[in-house]
């Protein structure tokens, strides 16, 4: 039984290397997750600013939208709702 726990106080070499990698990661430079986040946020910001610019350009240059013509039937219903009798009734 005592022979089974011969290496209980030692850390396997693979775990020692992981500890060194974690310590060295801060010294190497930018975090890749941070770079991805910055790229995504900047693309989203460019998209939103571009949409706003196009919207403002369209508001200035495009003519106003034409209203749909109202059918005679709807006009008659609206006049009856307002209390004005339609001509011929």
Q: Can you give the helix content as a percent range?
A: 55-70%
Specify Rg, calculated over alpha carbons.
37 Å
What can be said about the biggest beta sheet? Answer: none
Strand content: under 5%
Structural class: mainly alpha
Order of helices and strands: HHH
Total of helices: 3
GO cellular component, one term: nucleus
Subcellular location: Nucleus
InterPro entries: S1FA_DNA-bd
Region (Disordered): 65-89
Brief overview:
It is built from three helices and no strands. It is mainly alpha-helical.
What this model shows, in words?
The chain is mostly helical and 89 residues long. The chain has a domain of 31 residues. Helix content is 64%, strand content 0%. The termini are far apart. The model has no long low-confidence stretch (mean pLDDT 79). This is DNA-binding protein S1FA-like.
Layout: helices, strands, pairs:
Blueprint: H1 13-28, H2 32-61, H3 72-82
